[in-house]
């Protein structure tokens, strides 16, 4: 089961002495006075490092690939949050849509943990080819996560509680058939999980109690069609 389904890991470093600017959106409603008073200009590159994209290789297994990315400052919102956006360094294509950070210290001095805690609202990420990769709602008591294969078909979808998978979670194969689904509590599998093959036939059922597998049922092809 994927334990890293929150889609995005950042390893960003503070950037100094860079004169390049990014083409950030100008139609976002910002607090203009606060943005003018900020230590960064809209479009200014404030951090660079690596962004990670997970690629499915076998149903529930995945591999990650890192890409050089940079972060640009967009502005300050009326709620006081900081709007930023990431881009792929080699192509200047967007790695994320603009999203909110609640803490000024996380705009350009970032660790993966602090960055995750500071994200508020929706964060949308993109593959290098421009197709949508993931969309999470973070920083709220109840949130959600969803990601897509590079062919555009859904890969996984579930709910978050305090930024951790909690509730019903569903995974799909690249051909669009459902792969497996069940409940998660704080990223741990609980209750009954069902598994299907790529033709849609039910394969197995697994029961998890106290975060451990307690029952395993292997279904024959005939059983799966009953």
Automatic annotation (TrEMBL):
Keywords annotated in UniProt: Signal
Leader peptide range in chain numbering: 1-21
Name assigned to this protein: MORN repeat variant
Species of origin: Leminorella grimontii
